[in-house]
Amino acid sequence: MPTSPGGNSPAPPPRRTDARINRDRLVATAQEVFAELGPAASLNQIAQRAGVGPGTLYRHFPNRQALLAAVLRDRIERLVRQADVLTATEPPDDALAHWLRALLAHARLNQGMGSTLMVEEPGAPGLDCHRLILDAAAGVLTRAQEHGTARADLAAADLIPLVAGIALSTTHTADPTQPARLLDLVLDATFTTPR
């Protein structure tokens, strides 16, 4: 049996390719179904649309919370990667503005999922995801602050609630431009010079 890099304990067996493909397919399908129908969508419908049986879904995700956590984590990892790409390819203030817009889109898309996963135990999915977002926000904000274009007295922990508040308060707005306008106000308050 293969051992872990430290050599002390057996390494877990490699996941079979078809099992990994099924898992990835279930997460991708759940992304679509939850976006269409919300976090209470039928798990059987997700399995059917993914082309697998309910047993396969429950082998990978024993309950709704486990599937929601996988979907949310996948979305958050993409959001974090986007922060890295923007930081590497755009001027600091543009990277911050573009990432906050991506964060707003993420928050609007994932309303209901985050509250379903609210947890208090250290290391649980909800806290881990919040830390990933906070770290990504801190990275793009710090770079703009070092460049002198963002206010030095702001923290990532200030910006995230503002963006989340916009997402929450515009859930049922009849004006589709309102979220972007409100975010522009936040950006005006974030940068030291008009954009």
Which residues sit in consecutive blocks of at least 5 with pLDDT less than 50?
116-122
Q: What is the count of β-strands?
A: 0
Percent range for β-strand residues: under 5%
- Pairing-aware structural class of the strands and helices? mainly alpha
Q: What Rg do the Cα atoms give? A: 20 Å
Mean pLDDT: 86
Q: In DSSP terms, counting alpha (H) and pi (I) runs of 4 or more, how many helices?
A: 9
N-to-C series of helices and strands: HHHHHHHHH
Taken from the alpha-carbon principal axes, the silhouette is: elongated
Largest sheet: none
End-to-end Cα distance: 60 Å
Query: How much helicity do the residues have?
Result: 55-70%
What distinguishing features does this structure have?
69% helix; 195 residues; 9 helices; single chain; mainly alpha
Question: How does this model look, in words?
Answer:
This protein has 195 residues and is an all-alpha fold. The chain has helices at 17-37, 43-50, 54-60, 64-89, 92-109, 113-116, 125-147, 156-169, 178-190. Helix 4 (64-89) runs antiparallel to helix 5 (92-109) and helix 5 packs antiparallel against helix 9 (178-190). The longest helix has 26 residues, at 64-89. Residues 116-122 have low confidence and may be disordered.
